[in-house]
Specification:
five-stranded antiparallel beta sheet, TolA/TonB C-terminal domain, alpha+beta, disordered N terminus, membrane, 7 helices
């Protein structure tokens, strides 16, 4: 009866296997690439730790929007790239010495026979994954009025996770402009962009591309 109760309690996460080593097989941390390659530079902290139920990702960010984008990117990578099961926790606000921050948890569980390949990145990905210029022109980053009035310019480098159909599944800040308004404007616009992918690239599944976004007062 105790085993049945435990099985039912875990059913929402990954189903209940019959073998006694089922819990040990919930190795979700292996489905993610190196943490630094998929971490928004604006995150205060992001840790991955394997426990009895799976891989527990714990993040802390300065804003709710950044926390949500980071959590979303990890979910996309784990589920779209190797069929892992992801259970996002609620994003909660906390105050430390009067400074607000936002934390989240994410539980990842992968089947023992899951095969996960690192998505294409860097120079190898660029010839086969290119931005649709029409979509970028239709959805340009908005120049924040406060930056316009102050005469401030900036440059953001984004990390985008691109689906086989060319949609941007998630956007993270790889290199910040140093201005939160620029970073937010760039990520909001990038999530609406589309990308062109050739047959070989689509077959690989999820792709990672780096896109610079410049804010200049021409």
């Amino acid at each position: 009866m105790r085993r049945l109760g435990a099985c039912l309690a875990l059913l929402w996460l990954a189903g209940c296997a019959s073998q006694p080593d089922a819990v040990i097989e919930r190795d979700g941390c292996r489905v993610l690439p190196a943490r630094a390659s998929l971490t928004d530079v604006r995150m205060h902290a992001l840790t991955l730790k394997q426990d009895a139920k799976g891989c527990r990702a714990v993040g802390r960010a300065p804003t709710q929007d950044i926390a949500a984008m980071q959590q979303r990117a990890l979910v996309v990578m784990a589920t779209a790239h190797c069929g892992a099961m992801a259970t996002p926790g609620e994003i909660q606000q906390a105050n430390t010495q009067g400074v607000a921050s936002y934390g989240f948890t994410l539980l990842l569980a992968a089947k023992p026979d899951a095969v996960c390949h690192a998505p294409g990145t860097g120079d190898r990905a660029m010839p086969v994954v290119s931005i649709d210029e029409a979509s970028r022109r239709s959805n340009p980053p908005r120049y924040p009025p406060t930056m316009t009035h102050a005469g401030i310019e900036g440059r953001v480098i984004l990390t985008l996770l691109v689906e086989p159909d060319g949609a941007a599944a998630a956007a993270l800040v790889q290199t910040s402009s140093g201005q939160a308004a620029f970073d937010q404007s760039a990520t909001e616009a990038a999530r609406k962009w589309r990308f062109h992918r050739d047959a070989a690239s689509k077959h690989e599944g999820l792709a990672v591309v780096r896109v610079p976004v410049r804010f200049a007062m021409d």
